[in-house]
Structure formats: structure tokens, C-alpha cells
Amino acid sequence: MNLNTPRLTSLALAAAMAFAYSTFGDTPDEEVYLAPESFVAESFDGASPKPSVLWITNELKPDIQKILGHDYPALRVRYWKDKERTAWILEEIGKVKPITVGIVVEDGRITRLKVLIYRESHGWEVKHSFFTNQFTDAELTEKLRLNKNIDGISGATLSVNALKRLGRLALFLHQQALR
Predict the structure, then answer these.
(1) What's the pLDDT at 29?
(2) How distant, in Å, are the alpha carbons of 41, 89, 131 from that of 34?
(3) What is the dihedral of CA 125, 113, 38, 29, to 10 degrees?
(4) How far apart are alpha carbons 86 and 83 in whole angstroms?
(5) Keywords on this record (predicted)?
(6) How far is 161 from 94, CA to CA, in rounded Å?
(7) Which terminus in the chain has less CB density within 10 A, N or C?
(8) What distances in angstroms separate CA 169 from CA 14, 31, 61, 82, one per listed residue?
(9) In what side-by-side order are the strands of the sheet with 98-106?
(10) What is the distance between the alpha carbons of residues 67 and 156, in angstroms, rounded to a whole number?
């Protein structure tokens, strides 16, 4: 076996970069449609309020688990609030990678839902407004479901379901933030 040191170094560097990309989420196949900070600014007419924090308490965990089907992966959630409007930057796994979504809730209804960063190889169709506009005016029922039907996209079922869960979660968190 011929050990070519520069070649081994290149392979080691490539492996390290692949590990770093997979670990830190900055994958080469990541598509950023709108930077989260731009989403927040747009949601408040260019004047982003200071971020606030909602702690995921033991009281909230069962309902969040019911909405997501798993525990929330953090102890707190950052959000932005101005009067009755809140904006949330949330992530949920589609198939194997997180989808970053911005959601604005006002008066208990979703007023805007936008896919900000998409990392999956399939299901990217959920980024289109024909799909995300279905969430407009959606409210949360007492059973923690959306009060309106969201049509799926063939071949993007896991991404569609991830966005439905995030819509429900944003509505639930909005209720908690306004308490």
C-alpha cells in the first residue's frame, strides 16, 4: 500500500469538513431562503423588538410533547413580541435534517409562515407560498390541533407534517407567551 502523505492529509481534511458540516448544520446542501433576522425584521415592519425567552417548564412539556410527538430539544425558546403579535423561529426534523421555519402569530392566528432554511434532499416544495399560505388564519383547537385542513404535497409528506407540527407549536407557545 502506497501511503501518499499529501493525499492522506487531503482525505483527512475532507473527512473533518464533512463531520463539521454534519455536526454544525452548515451543510453545503442547506438552502437559505430568508435569514431568520430578516424574517423577524419583516414581521415587525423593519423594527425588530428585543427578543424574549419562554422557558419550557415541566407544565408545558406534556402539551409540547403531544404537539411534536417528542420532547422539545431545548430548555427555552426565543421569540419576538410587539403587543399581540409574536414571531417564532422554530426547527423540526423533516426526515433526517431540521427545517427552519419563521412563524408569526397575532390574535391567536397564524398570519405568516415561511420556510427560512431547508436542509433535506426531498420535500423542498413546502417552501412555496402555495403551500405555506394554507396556514394563514389557522388557529389552535382545545385538542392542540389546527382548526383548518392543510393539504399535503405528494412526495413531501414528512416535511408537510413537520410544518404542521411547527404551526401548532407556534400557536401554543404564543398562548403561553401572552399569559
Answers:
(1) 82
(2) 11, 12, 17
(3) -30
(4) 8
(5) Signal
(6) 8
(7) N
(8) 38, 23, 11, 19
(9) 31-32, 109-118, 98-106, 85-93, 76-82, 51-55
(10) 20
Q: What is the pLDDT of residues 53-104, one digit of tens each?
A: 999 999 999 999 999 999 999 999 999 999 999 999 999 999 999 999 999 9
Determine the Cα–Cα distance for residues 149 and 171; give it in Å rounded to an integer: 15
Rounded alpha-carbon distances, angstroms, from residue 96 to 99, 106, 118, 123, 151? 10, 31, 11, 12, 22
| Residues ≥6 apart with Cβ < 8 Å to 11 | none
φ, ψ for residue 60, nearest 5 deg = -85, -25
Distant-in-sequence contacts of 90-96, Cβ < 8 A, 24+ apart: 90/166, 90/169, 90/170, 91/166, 92/68, 92/162, 92/163, 92/165, 92/166, 92/169, 93/162, 94/120, 94/123, 94/158, 94/159, 94/162, 95/120, 95/122, 95/123, 95/158, 95/159, 96/120
